[in-house]
Amino acid sequence: MVNSKIIWLYLFTLGYCFIISYGLDQELKDEEQITWCTVTLEEQYKCQNLTKALERDRALFREDFLTLKCLQGFNKHDCMTLVDAEKAHFVTLDAGDVFIAGRYNSLIPIMQEQYDGGFKYHYAVAVIKSGTLTGVTSLRDLRGVKACFAGVGYHAGWVLPIHVLMKMGGMQIIDCNNHVKSAIEYFGPSCAVNSLTDKYNPIGDNSDKLCSLCTGKVAGGKCTSKDPYAGYEGAFRCLLEDGEIAFLRHGTVQQMIRSKEFRSVQENRFELLCTDGTRKPISEYRQCNWGTSPSDAIVTTSAHNYENRQRYDRFLKQLATRYSYSRQSNYNNTQFGPNSNNNFNRDSNYNQDYNRNTGFQDYNRNNQGYNPNNRYDNNYGRDLDNEYDMFNNSNRNLKHDSIDNDYGVRYNASADPSFYEK
């Protein structure tokens, strides 16, 4: 009887230890694998190509290697929710979405894009077709025009334009908690994707005026991130086809006219509208812009412990070192080719049209990490309690006063603006 009890106790202990060991092994395996949340099909393809490159080069990563999985969400907000729920580890966000992700989903930035020359921002510009809007001599004359936005929440493509128009263009604040209503009252038929989503239409009373120019044909896709007019590329397409003004990043026009889709479009078909009502060529964005916007960032949940975040940081830095675009002092058209200078892929089946911004950017080895001891550290230098106020003292360092025209020489960077819009 005693021997029987001893045997049962031994078996129970052995089984318990096996369960604990299995649990620890499984937890370790989970920590060895990360999931990147993507939104567009292009972004998903690029992520999948990265997984192949990682498997090929895993020995080079040594102890920093992590297995990468790609999970496609419906939109950025879906990805934010997945990361918050720890069903995904990373998502790449526009600066405007970084603010939203921190405020509503407890996500924190772990790495920020930094372009050759040390730049961590884009200029926000207003682009019109050359020779149009002749009656617009000040920003107040923009009332009623057909506008193309990258999407509600985009920093350069929504936040800054709305802020500037409230400060200088006579846009009235209709609802302090819903600036979409101010844009609805101010503009004519326009396209600003996500203007009818729950986050930006909290009580469901927004009109569809900011969706009237959008062209989505897929069921449930119109005026969402799936719309052809979504994002900075979509806003450019909207301007070309239907709109009168588009709010873009400074390199979007050059980036798009170099793509296969718009190869026949000439840059001189467009011009910049300055905040004083004057016009300038697309290339003079430093003198004619509506503010500067921080570059995109990779975010993760603040629920990850310090050790895991440190490990993710090391992994991302390895990615940046091994798979970024080559650093060139001059722009080279071949950097946008199917295989050229992109070590993510050496496969001939690589998607050849990566001129559009996939959202999964190629981070160079100088990309900025974030202070892991301060979950609120964003390195953007902005006062996140007042994201609209670029005139706030804590936001002044985002202005371009310290950048002069010879920056391409001083920093040995490309003087071509599209280089910073990869």
Architecture overview:
The chain has helices at residues 2-31, 41-56, 58-61, 76-84, 95-105, 155-168, 179-186, 231-241, 252-257, 306-323, 407-410, and strands spanning 33-38, 67-72, 91-93, 107-112, 121-129, 147-148, 245-249, 270-273, 279-280, 292-294, 297-301, 368-369. It is of the alpha+beta class and 422 residues long. It has two domains: 32-116 and 296-397, D-Maltodextrin-Binding Protein, domain 2; 121-293, Periplasmic binding protein-like II (D-Maltodextrin-Binding Protein, domain 2), CATH 3.40.190. Strands 5, 6, 7, 8, 9 and 10 form a six-stranded mixed β-sheet that branches. Residues 20-29 and 326-422 have low confidence and may be disordered. Residues 332-351, 362-378 have a biased composition (Low complexity). Residues 327-378 are annotated as: Disordered.
Protein topology:
Layout (H helix, E strand, L loop, with lengths): L1 H30 L1 E6 L2 H16 L1 H4 L5 E6 L3 H9 L6 E3 L1 H11 L1 E6 L8 E9 L17 E2 L6 H14 L10 H8 L44 H11 L3 E5 L2 H6 L12 E4 L5 E2 L11 E3 L2 E5 L4 H18 L44 E2 L37 H4 L12
Parallel strand pairs: 1-2, 6-7
Antiparallel strand pairs: 3-11, 4-11, 4-12, 5-7, 5-8, 5-10, 8-9
Give a summary of the structure in a few sentences:
This protein has 422 residues and is an alpha+beta fold. It contains 11 helices and 12 strands. Residues 352-361 have a biased composition (Polar residues).
Q: Determine the fraction of residues in helical runs and give it as a percent range.
A: 25-40%
- What is the terminal-to-terminal distance? 75 Å
Structural class: alpha+beta
Largest sheet: 6 strands, mixed
**What is the number of domains?**
2
**Would you identify the CATH H-level superfamily of the largest domain?**
Periplasmic binding protein-like II
Q: What percentage of the residues does DSSP assign to strands (E)?
A: 5-15%
- β-strand number: 12
CATH class of the largest domain equals Alpha Beta
The name CATH uses for the topology of the largest domain is D-Maltodextrin-Binding Protein, domain 2
Based on Cα principal axes, name the global outline.
globular
Q: Give the count of helical stretches.
A: 11
Rg, alpha carbons: 24 Å
Q: Average the pLDDT over all residues and give the rounded result.
A: 78
Query: Which parts are unreliable, with pLDDT below 50 for 5 consecutive residues or more?
Result: 20-29, 326-422
Secondary-structure element series = HEHHEHEHEEEHHHEHEEEEHEH
Q: Which architecture of the largest domain would the CATH scheme give at its second level?
A: 3-Layer(aba) Sandwich
Keywords: Membrane, Repeat, Transmembrane, Transmembrane helix
Protein name: Putative melanotransferrin
Biased composition (Polar residues): 352-361
Transmembrane segments: 6-24
